[in-house]
Amino acid sequence: MAFIPQEIIRRKRDGAALAADEVRFLIDGLTRGTVTEGQAAAFAMAVFFRGLSRDERVALTLAMRDSGTVLDWSDLPGPALDKHSSGGIGDTVSLMLAPAVAACGGFVPMISGRGLGHTGGTLDKLDAIPGYGSQPDNALFRSVVRDVGCAIIGQTADLAPADKRLYAIRDVTATVESLDLITASILSKKLAAGLTGLVLDVKAGSGAFMATLDDARGLAESLVSVANGAGLPTVGLITDMNEPLASAAGNALEVRVAIDFLTNTRVDPRLHAVTVECGAEMLVLGGLAPDVAAGRTAIATAFSSGRAAAVFARMVAALGGPADLLERPEAYLARAPVVRPVHADAAGAIAAIDTRAIGVAVVALGGGRTRPEDAIDPSVGFTNLAGLGTVVDGERPLGLVHAASEAAADAASAALRAAYRIGPPATPGPLVIDRITV
Ligand code: URA
After folding, report:
1. Mean pLDDT score across all residues of the chain
2. In this predicted model, what pLDDT tens digit does every residue of 380-406 receive, in sequence order?
3. Which residue among 116, 167, 179 has the greatest number of ligand 1 atoms within 8 angstroms of its CB, and so is best to mutate?
4. How far apart are CA 403 and CA 397, in angstroms?
5. How buried is residue 167: exposed, middle or buried, by Cβ count under 10 Å (0-12/13-18/19+)?
6. 114: pLDDT confidence band, cut at 50, 70 and 90?
7. Is residue 118 over pLDDT 90?
């Protein structure tokens, strides 16, 4: 049946439910150029105000998935599994999770993104490893996933290109903040990656995009229900982001956290807990563990035995990074010229943390971008960040700032002090707040 774009847009504008083939017509047209950017913008705005039913969201997700290559991992001797995080501060989970799941028999073709807003991106962290090629060609990507068990790489142009076009249009038409469009955008890329199972780590709290628990739950429920509706078995976890997940924020600094974690040199308990939980869910989804408890044990053992570390080392080397990164991280990871402690104005316990402000301070240090084309300074950020309830004083600082200059360190120190509130010691809430399986 021949459709007319403006008639479909009009129907959505007036609140009608669109049929799957109407949605597909628009997305196919956007991909091929027969639907204009103006029409796509009008459609996005109509969706923003009128919303989409679950069936419409599934249809949009599938149409965007099919706008480019859909990877097929059925030749692998095990399940293809992945995790998506809604973004946070000190969220280094992916770097340890992918090799741990691979060490347990899963295959993790992890296609990750760059930093967005105040949050860090896995790809920017990996780019802090000299020589690591985060844009391998398809043949190398496939062979590393098959031979090593995991490969963490960047988005490729042929994966869900309709999302790329629609996202660029949303970005400049005030339509990014639509739960329906966010859901289809995230999931179209995950579905195009050809996964067997997916875990979503939706952050809630002062450093999350979804600061309130209600908003985080809304996003998790939408993602889980649409992913399952589109045929991808998915579990959502809502995890705490009221303080940085690791005690460091910044690209090379977080890679160092991951290496220390994998080599059992210094294991951050919060990072361990979230990584183990995500890994356990992935193993269950992939049929590699009978239940979450068994999955937790398997992932924790992959870490304590050093098997996950060995997989990480092989992945880094296979993608062009140094073969001895784990033995000699200090020889490869950039170090900032200025490193100094940041003390609170008064001694006391940490009552609250504006976690988002810490992420913004990392961006201001040069560790993130203010324009898409900006280069990142991998060396800058914070380490030894105090957590909720920690007592700080003349001895124990709020953290260490790593900066390119004394002036940048001064500004970041002021920002870090402003991000911390001293008062009655906060008792951190549960790290894994909820599990969504709708
Ligand atoms: N991340 C995405 O990939 N898409 C969105 O719309 C929002 C976050």
Report:
1. 96
2. 999 999 999 999 999 999 999 999 999
3. 167
4. 16
5. middle
6. confident
7. no
The catalytic position among 65, 165, 170, 314 is 170
Annotation marks residue 343 as catalytic? no
Q: Is the CB of 71 under 6 A from ligand 1?
A: no
- Give pLDDT, residue 1: 65
Average of pLDDT values for 233-238? Answer: 98
- CB of 300 within 8 A of CB of 92? no
Strands, sheet with 197-204, edge to edge from the N-terminal-most edge strand: 81-85, 197-204, 234-240, 432-436
182 lines ligand 1 (CB under 6 A): yes
- Global pTM value: 0.95
Considering 125, 190, 203, 402, which one is annotated as catalytic? 190
Domains of the chain, with CATH numbers?
A: 5-51 (1.20.970.10), 81-328 (3.40.1030.10), 335-423 (3.90.1170.30)
> Which tokens is 423 given?
């008062």
Give the pLDDT band (50/70/90) at residue 376. very high
Burial of 30 (0-12, 13-18, 19+ CB in 10 A): buried
- pLDDT exceeds 70 at position 256: yes
